[in-house]
Amino acid sequence: MLRAMYPGSFDPITNGHLDIIGRASTMFDQLIVAILRNPNKSPLFTVEERREMLCQSVAEWPNVQVEVFHGLLVNFAREKECRIVVRGLRAISDYEYETQIALINRKLAPEIETIFLTTSAQFSYLNSTVVKEIAQFGGCVRELVPPIVEKKLKEKFKKERG
Ligand code: ADP
To answer: What's the domain range around 55?
Structure first.
C-alpha cells in the first residue's frame, strides 16, 4: 500500500492544485491532501472553509482524502504512514524554495521522500494569491478554480464590500 501526502495552504484550492491531485491520485493507492493550519499566515478562508471546498472538489477521486494538520509536516506524514510527499513545481522560482523544504524534511525524516510533479502548462501562472486578487476586484475566476471556490470567493468579497 503506497500512501502519499500532498500538503499546502490551499487558500483556496485552484485548478492547478486539482491537476496535481488528479495526477497524483493515479500514482498512489491513497493520497492525503493535508491542509496546513499555519499560525504565521493570515488566510482568507478558515481551515474549515478550505476543507469544505477541497472535499467537494476531490469527490470524484475515491482514493483522495482531505485532512487538516498543524506543526511539522514530517510528523503528520509519519502519523498517517505516508512515505511520499508530493509537491507541485511551476517555475524556476518554486524550485529554490521547494528544494530547501524537501532537504529540511529529509534531514528530519530520512525515510520520507519528496517528489515533484511539474505543473501542466495551462496552470503554470496560477496560484491562490492571483485568484484572490482577481476575485477581490470583481474579475472572473471561472476557468481558474472549481465552481465551489468561485461561489465562496464571490460571497466572501461581497460581504467585505458590504
Ligand atoms: P504552500 O503555501 O505550502 O506553498 P500552496 O497551497 O500555495 O501551499 O501550494 C501547495 C503545493 O501546490 C505547492 O507544492 C505548490 O508549488 C503547488 N502548486 C500551487 N499552484 C500550482 C499550480 N498552478 N500548478 C502546480 N502546482 C501548484
So the answer is: 3-124
Does residue 67 form part of some domain? yes
pTM, to two decimals: 0.95
> Please, are residues 124 and 91 in contact by the beta-carbon 8 Å criterion?
yes
Q: Active-site residue 41, yes or no?
A: yes
Element at 91 (helix H, strand E): none
Quick: pLDDT tens for 49-74: 999 999 999 999 999 999 999 999 99
In the predicted structure, residue 162 carries a pLDDT above the cut 70: no
Domain count for the chain, please give it: 1
Q: In this structure, what CATH number is given to the domain that contains residue 91? A: 3.40.50.620
* Ligand 1 site-directed mutation target among 85, 127, 145, most atoms within 8 Å of CB: 127
| CA 116 – CA 111 distance, rounded (Å) | 17
Q: Is 17 a catalytic residue?
A: yes
Query: Does residue 83 sit within a domain?
Result: yes
Summarize pLDDT for 118-150 with one digit per residue, the tens.
999 999 999 999 999 999 999 999 999 999 999
Interval between CA 161 and ligand 1 midpoint (Å) = 28
